[in-house]
Amino acid sequence: MPSPATVSPFLDPLEKLLSVHGTPAVVRAVEAGDDAGNARQAWIDSGFADLLMPEASGGAGLPLRMADELLRTCARRLLPWPLDATMIARAAFAGAGGAAPDGFVAIAPQTSVDADGRMLCRGVPDGAAADWILATVAEGAMLVPVREHRSEAVFRGGTVATDVFWHAQPAGTTPIPRGMDWMAIGACLMATRIAGAMERLLEMTLAHASTRAQFGKPLAAFQAVQQQLAVMAEQVAAARMAASIGMLAEGIEPDPLRAAIAKARTSEAVVEVTSIAHGVHGAIGIAAEFDLQLYTRRLHAWRLAFGTERRWQGVVGRALLAAEGPVLDAIVLRAAPPAA
Asked: pTM of this prediction?
């Protein structure tokens, strides 16, 4: 089993790649519909999508828990391609002895197919930038090609979360060779994204409060602002802990209850954290040229993706009601890190 130190060799090259191909300019370009070909190809060629694949298949064989910091680092920079979902999809194919898909995979939170075979995937994070969309239907999960069938697909909404519609199932649709709880996986990944993006949002807000002056002194010198920043920091810390709980898995699939805890707590934090960030920044926070809105728009989209806190709080509540013994033990024992 890889030790925690195994992750550190990947962080430096990840940061270097992000500094060149994960800048706000790249995020804006992809959001505007630009292919950002050089940056996109750099990520595909980097090998990071193979970190969860078995070593026998050419991957690094990392468990999900060891991708936690890596994926939060990507979220801090708002990486505009679904590297997280791609890592799990490729590992699922490789683990089942199949050929891993080329390009980026985005997971659809909701998929419907009508009697005439028309398919609709709703609210897909990074769906417009993906090569494949992983859709779950009654027959099971499947990969639906997007990039080579863009002329046949209808995209609605923004690039942060996109509805994708096909008049018929595209050629090249491939069944997923392994049964997995993709709703819980998506919730876990969104929780990690939320935690990483909110860490950066806190840094930006603290920096602005320290440098922006009002009535002759920095905003951070005012007690009311200090109180709001303290609440924000508390929410961000709690979200990070919850997201890490969700990622505690020795394989590539999170525990459903841990994923529920992660998504419930991180989604709950989004409204307060983004409100405080915009309150401290003032009008500049919504300016298109300012990076703050890049983060807050994505945080709200990720809060909605794969269910809000209300949905996942219900999952946790039902697990508590069904548990035997003390309620606190039921949660702590499931949420605790695995024994060494």
From this structure: 0.94
